[in-house]
Amino acid sequence: MSVVLGRPPGAVSAAGVQPRTDPTQRLAHAALAVVLVLLLVFLAAPLAAILQQALQDAQGRFAGLANFFAYARTPALLVSLGNSLWVSALVTLVTVPLAFAFAYALRRTRMRGKALFRGITLLPLLAPSLLAAISLIYWFGNQGVAKGAMQALGVASIYGAPGIVVAECFAVFPHVLMILVTALGAADGRLYEAAHAMGTGGWRRFFTITLPGAKYGLISASLVSFTLVITDFGIPKVIGGNFNMLATDVFQLVIGQQDFQRGAVVALLLLAPAVLTFAVDRWVARRQTALLTARAVPYRPAPRRWRDGLATAYCVAIAALVLAMMGMAVFASFARLWPYNLAPTLNHYVMGLVDAEVGTAFVNSLVMAAGTAVFGTALVFGGAYLLEKTEGAGALRSAVRLLALLPMAVPGLVLGLGYIFFFNAPGNPLSGLYHTMALLTVCTIAHFYTTGHLTAVTALKALDAEFEAVSVSLKVPFWVTFRRVTLPICTPALVDIARYFFINAMTTISAVVFLYAPETKVAAIAILNLDEAGETGAAAAMAVLITAASSVAMLLFMALAWWVERRTSAWRA
Fold this sequence. Notes:
Order of helices and strands: HHHHHHHHHHHHHHEEHHHHHHHHHH
Radius of gyration: 26 Å
CATH topology of the largest domain: MetI-like fold
Structural class: mainly alpha
Strand order of the largest sheet: 1-2
Helix content: over 70%
Number of domains: 2
Oligomer: single chain
CATH architecture of the largest domain: Orthogonal Bundle
Number of strands: 2
Low-confidence stretches: 1-21
Shape: globular
């Protein structure tokens, strides 16, 4: 009598989880389909609306590439394209070496005060980007305290390209630094020990070991810097003067001239470098090899007085520049009448919060940031869980993965413009969302979706598939396993995602600049309006308030993370 060996009841598949054939699998697929629909409606459809506008004339008829040819025949717009390209390249060439030297000092020396210097350089992340432009105006503007020093260097005015370059370097520096600190943190000490034993000099070790090991980080940092600069709107708007760039052209064409077709063409031009950057970054990530193996030895730099002293001096200089930019905005926000009466006063704060009604905008910012943190975290983590911890529906799964990565390649200004074209279109059943706080929140979630998604996926991949396998064998629904096992273990990652959403929602400008109404204006947009009205002191005060609120939120999230770590991760000890 022959015996046929089959899979016993409760056995798991080779992937670690038995394919579900019960209703829970269909429920998981339905939930994943809901995530796909949301991404299609609030991400893919607005981008498709931009392409549609670029291919139509003012009457809505198909025009092919006529709008692109008209753009190419407009000298002023071509000048803006050239300005954006060379300014972005210059900022990248300046910022990446400066950040690399700072990251090298943090990772490869024994200097003191590393945590302090790292914390200072992260301060620009808590402030809206235009704070740097406002500070530069007070330092080097027409009535700046150091205007003479700038003119002594041969720079006639801070307005225009000089101001944009300096302010963008300040705003981009922490983003580049984070990438390079990570890149220089992965090093095998055995390579340096072998090189030292062979008598290899310090400079040669740097060019043959350190630099090649960090090359992928340098490439990624350069791409991020270029993309952030070419798509930034706030800094060119505040300090650009008559120096036009693509981001300001989009705003002028759409809001000022109501030329939606050429505005869509410029938006596609802004999208092109971001997509190219994303493609190159993915290519680099695939080619990158592991720098640390199972036998790797952590690299511990030996103390050298001259090198550590030089690194400390360099970090002090960079930190002083960051504090000078931040400090000037704070000082100017309290000055009674710049530059004639510098006595401290709260007039600018009263003017901004009460007279200019920025207080309402500030509350709107807090509401939008809180909504982004709560609903964005829930959507991101739920979608990532359905992708990583359930099986089946391969086509549906691939579509969600693709759309989850798409926001990384879409500038906020382009996404906001797409929301105008799509949600303000006649006949769209969702047009009631236009100019509402709900749409501003959704746009912000879509803008920053990818980073939160990757964070959630990283946390979920760290969990063994045996959790789901056991739940399947015991016929426990997946949502029970999610609530009792996955969610408690991944709570620290949820706090990180919520913090990321909240801070970015407080400081973002480009993603919502097209979407607000007078009653839904947020604080970052109110700062732009105050600056345009000539109330630079009040604008500085509101920028300082946003920075203060972001700093308080960061501290609260850190406290929450500490509490969550103690409550949910005690088992790790």
